[in-house]
Amino acid sequence: MARWAVYACENIYGGLHGMNYTAVVEFESSNVVADFARGQSLELIESYSDIVETLEQDVEYNIEPGMSDEEIEQLRYEIYLEDTEYTWEKVDETKAGQYSTQELDEMIYDLGYEEFVELYC
Q: What is the DSSP code (8-state) at residue 16?
């Protein structure tokens, strides 16, 4: 199990005003952490009504006559996915090994993602 520094936001505001997710998490592989980070970005998007309204307007604009409900849901997913923004870095255990995951999670919040990555990844 590896530890990862994760940053997720959406690309309308790009994480401004605290509209982001930053954490240190434990996962087995980069594929799993990528899915997690993408999910955090989507959850963040869905938690802000103004972002959802903007994306729903894009969905409405792109619906074509005769599209099934399933096709509309796929379109919605693709449009929302285009708005995700996320990244992750593997924690370097030689630099951060003395700290617990919870301690690192508190540190990434205090330091910010970029500074944390410089120090511990």
A: G
Domain span including residue 101: 2-120
Each residue's pLDDT tens digit, 53-108: 989 999 999 999 999 999 999 999 999 999 999 999 999 999 998 999 999 999 99
In the chain, what is the straight-line distance between the N-terminal and C-terminal CA atoms, in Å? 16
Number of domains in the chain: 1
Query: Could you tell me if 4 and 33 are in contact, meaning their C-beta atoms sit under 8 angstroms apart?
Result: yes
Strand order in the sheet with 21-27: 21-27, 2-10, 84-90
Q: Are 27 and 4 in contact (CB under 8 A)?
A: yes
Identify which of 88, 75, 107 has the alpha carbon closest to the alpha carbon of residue 40: 88
Q: How many CA atoms lie within 13 A of 79 on its CB side?
A: 20
